[in-house]
Write a structure and sequence with these properties.
Order of helices and strands: HEEEEEHHE
Number of helices: 3
Structural class: alpha+beta
Distance between the termini: 60 Å
Strand content: 15-25%
Number of domains: 2
Number of strands: 6
Radius of gyration: 24 Å
Helix content: 25-40%
Length: 126
């Protein structure tokens, strides 16, 4: 019985020690390599920094980061639209995916949606 209690106590101490070590490691890693705040959103007209969600409806802004500077157009539904999108078209193609599908870090002409279609359909990225 005493042997079982020692085993449980030692197991709990090991778990606590591992948790504490992981916590210290995580804290140290955040000091050395902080999480990037991401791209800045800059208003195209005024040049002022915007503090809005990336898909706020009816917005046009530039995503500026050290590696890219991409113009972003958001429609009234909060979807990114491409310059090759024909808004009068009855045909719509919907692309579902992650930040790469949305084009979070890409110029609009570099998106695969823009190369997929050329002015014949309306393109919507969610």
């Amino acid at each position: 019985m005493r042997n079982a209690m020692n085993w449980i106590k030692n197991s709990l101490l090991i778990c606590f020690s591992l948790f504490l070590a992981a916590l210290i490691f995580e804290f140290g890693a955040r000091i050395i390599l902080p999480i990037s705040p991401g791209a800045k959103k800059i208003d195209v007209d005024t040049g002022a920094q915007l503090f809005i969600p990336f898909n706020q409806p009816n917005r046009r802004y530039k995503q500026v980061y050290s590696e890219y500077n991409a113009l972003t157009n958001i429609d009234n539904n909060g979807n990114r639209v491409t310059s090759t999108s024909n808004k009068e078209s009855n045909i719509k193609i919907l692309f579902l995916g992650d930040s790469f599908t949305f084009g979070q870090v890409f110029l609009i002409m570099k998106l695969f949606q823009a190369t997929f279609v050329k002015r014949s359909v309306q393109i919507v990225s969610i």
